[in-house]
Amino acid sequence: MSVISKIIMTSAIMCGLFATCIFFSNLSSTILDVTGPKLTTISNPIQRKFDNATVFLPGLTNRLYRQETYGKLMHHHGRHLYTPKKYRVQKKNQLNHNLKRVCYYTVPSGEWPLLAPNEIDVNLCTHIIVGFATISNFSIAPLKDEDEIIFKNILQLKKKSPFLKVLLSVGGAGDDKGFRSIIKTEKNSEQFAVNSAKYLELLGFDGIDIDWEFPAWYAAFNERFMFIILLREIHRVYKAPNYNFTLSVAVPASKSIIDRSYRVSQMAKYVDFVNMMGYDFHSFHWYLPLTGHNSPLYSHSDEWSMFSTVNLNWTAFYWIQLGMPREKLVIGLPTYGQTYQLYNPAFNGVYAPAIGTGVYGIGGQITYPYVCKFLAAGATRHFDLQSRVPYAYLQRNWISYDDEDSLEEKAKWIKHNHFGGVMIFDLNCDDFARVCSNISFPLIKSILRGLQT
Predict the structure, then answer these.
(1) How many CB atoms lie within 10 A of CB 223?
(2) Which of 209, 139, 176, 198 is CA-nearest to residue 425?
(3) Taking the model in full, what pTM does it have?
(4) What was the pLDDT predicted at 128?
(5) How far apart are CA 336 and CA 112, in angstroms?
(6) Do the strands 421-425 and 329-334 form a parallel or antiparallel pair, or are they unpaired?
(7) Who has greater pLDDT, 95 or 403?
(8) Would you say the C-alpha torsion 338, 341, 343, 348 has a positive or negative sign?
(9) Staple 423 to which of 85, 102, 177, 235, CB 3.0 to 4.6 Å?
(10) Mean pLDDT of the 75-97 span
(11) Higher pLDDT residue, 8 or 287?
């Protein structure tokens, strides 16, 4: 075959491939109902159509999600999607709000630490969120009948501190806890809002914390839109003069969940604040058998792509970038740690190979008193100078945790950046029984020191 024939044949093949790419590009645009010219013009009309809609047509919310998502991609096209905008720290006189100190109290069950309500220092918190309750018959219901006794005992703490607000958290990790049953129709959401308000008023709570983990996660896209309707109905009922309840939402720190589950700017209209769960950034999983920090403040210099996003600093500013006002963004800090079992004790740094959770703790999680015992048993402590958190190891056991130094620094960071406050998860896992020292709740008190400096 001559050189000219080869050139002609190569050109024909290249043209064929180019035509095929164009065909499939047009086909995908047709299937997704998204085209280039439409992307710059559909955002507002479609948004108004959704906001005014009371009935969801089949496929409408899926199409809205695709248009919104692909519209953002077209808008950002060349921008690195893993880099949030940089924000200048605003002057103190520009932001005048009181920092919230939100403390979760978990009703003891199983092996979770048993902290009696009368052992709680009410001076530590401006808000106590009691977890958890579920949804039944379009209203709030305790997980166990005896839980209501705990609810009432926690509510008695308001007599010691008249400015303390006590909220009830509905949901928690695991299944949807009944949320999918109340978002099916707008009427269901309205019924839940009315019934739940009556329940909160009956017991004496000051509001609700919605802890649905998570709308549209491993589920239909339209839950993302229906969740906003639920918040809108709760807000409408709860802000009536006869109630004036507080509405908060527990939200994740994972970029992939945030992008799929929430319309942040819409959510911000209805919530008093959100509790960003700034922990569980790393824990042992079979598909990622490596050690990692439970709650790193900053990324590591050798982290790249998605790994550079799993830290408090990146996630907090990502929430702001998406439209959550910083005074409504409450940063969650843990009093518990994560445990790992090392593959080889000789490799004991961050991102070391692991084969499971450690022998200490509860299901991979460890309370601060157990961390103190671990260190007292001879464990080696290291402080990560880049991520600003400690870790410790002894033989095959490896623990990521926060101590007084790391939490005080995080609290200073929260105050310096003028976020809405700090959320602590939870009161139960701090050293309330003085195992580590003669100071009760040392971790939370270190957070308070950071907020005061």
Answers:
(1) 21
(2) 209
(3) 0.81
(4) 98
(5) 11
(6) parallel
(7) 403
(8) positive
(9) 102
(10) 42
(11) 287
Q: What whole-number distance in Å separates Cα of residue 252 and Cα of residue 54?
A: 28
For 41, other C-beta atoms within 10 Å of its C-beta total: 10
**What is the rounded distance in angstroms from the CA atom of residue 15 to the CA atom of residue 9?**
10
Query: What is the pLDDT confidence band of residue 96, given thresholds at 50, 70 and 90?
Result: very low
Band of pLDDT at residue 21, cut at 50, 70 and 90: low
Are the C-beta atoms of residues 383 and 445 closer than 8 Å to each other? Answer: no
Model pLDDT, residue 36? 36
| Alpha-carbon distances of 244 from 132, 180, 241, rounded to whole Å | 22, 26, 6
Residue that is written with structure tokens 């009161």 in the block: 427
Contact 314, 369 (CB under 8 A): no
How does DSSP assign 315-380, residue by residue?
Answer: HHHHHHHTT--GGGEEEEEESEEEEEEES-TT--STT-BEEE--SSSBTTEEEHHHHHHHHHTTPE
What is the spatial distance between Cα 432 and Cα 436, in angstroms, rounded to a whole number?
Answer: 9
Which residue carries 């105050």 as its tokens?
A: 415
> Which entry of 68, 190, 213, 223 is annotated as an active-site residue?
213
Give the whole-angstrom CA distance, residue 43 versus residue 65: 11
- What does the DSSP assignment read for 28-82? HHHHHT--HHHHTTSHHHHHHHHHT-SSPPTTHHHHHHHHHHHHHHHHHTTS-TT
**Quick one: which H or E segment has residue 401?**
none
User: How open is the CA angle 361-367-369, to the nearest 5 degrees?
Assistant: 110
Q: How far is residue 4's CA from residue 12's CA, in Å, rounded to a whole number? A: 12
Q: What is the rounded distance in angstroms from the CA atom of residue 366 to the CA atom of residue 368?
A: 7
**pLDDT exceeds cutoff 50 at 265:** yes
Q: Are 166 and 154 in contact (CB under 8 A)?
A: yes
Phi, psi for residue 105 in degrees, rounded to 5:
-120, 120
Q: For the chain, first and last CA: distance in Å?
A: 81
User: Do 245 and 206 touch, CB atoms closer than 8 A?
Assistant: yes
With beta carbons less than 8 A apart as the criterion, state whether 437 and 443 touch. Answer: no
* Residue 299 one-letter amino acid: S
408: left (phi over 0), alpha (psi -120 to 50) or beta: alpha
The single-letter DSSP state of residue 90 is: P
Annotation says 213 is catalytic: yes
How far is Cα 441 from Cα 342, in angstroms, rounded to an integer?
30
pLDDT tens by residue, 421-442: 999 999 999 999 999 999 999 9
